Amino acid sequence: xxxxxxxxxxxxxxxxxxxxxxxxxxxxxxxxxxxxxxxxxxxxxxxxxxxxxxxxxxxxxxxxxxxxxxxxxxxxxxxxxxxxxxxxxxxxxxxxxxxxxxxxxxxxxxxxxxxxxxxxxxxxxxxxxxxxxxxxxxxxxxxxxxxxxxxxxxxxxxxxxxxxxxxxxxxxxxxxxxxxxxxxxxxxxxxxxxxxxxxxxxxxxxxxxxxxxxxxxxxxxxxxxxxxxxxxxxxxxxxxxxxxxxxxxxxxxxxxxxxxxxxxxxxx
Length: 268
What we know:
This protein is of the alpha+beta class. 38% of the residues lie in helices and 14% in strands.
């Protein structure tokens, strides 16, 4: 505790006083946590509080035990010290103990220590976090290099809010064995078809099925027949929040598209 306390402070909340020295119950309510059921008006309506107010009134003290001020910056319900104790006990024994200690501190001229500030959590730099995550995923069995990179990128995003792959503009990881797989949109450009049209053709050819909302994040999945032509690629989600898979196709799949266009087959 520190010295030179001249005002009542409960749990770091200053309790105002009126010109008669009464204490503001609304401030006490604020210090207790502002639970609606503990509002001063509810307590004042109890038989216990009314009986105590009557006892205090009968003592002949010229200062009224309760005063309600309406309007202005000092509006609120103001009560004498005895009623502050009673109100605090009505809320809870633990809060009553805080009030007792606050009054003791006021008498001795000391200020109760404020609640300690929470420690600031320092986030690691994204490159450090990525290196640490890579060290972890390197120990995982049966996980290919693409998946390890995406797992480390996702872990980095969780730790510091930055996806390192997105920072360097690397949002798709190519296959380690094939680099000429194409998206439906890329396939369609040769024939003047949209990506949606290509997807429909591939579905009609029984190479893929529509699976919206799948756990992989892709709206399409290969059929058994499509396994010879397609492959799922790992990609990062927009915004860097995790990864998803995208279905791409070998150039040889264009032969399934050709019957739906006027483009003749290339001469052997």
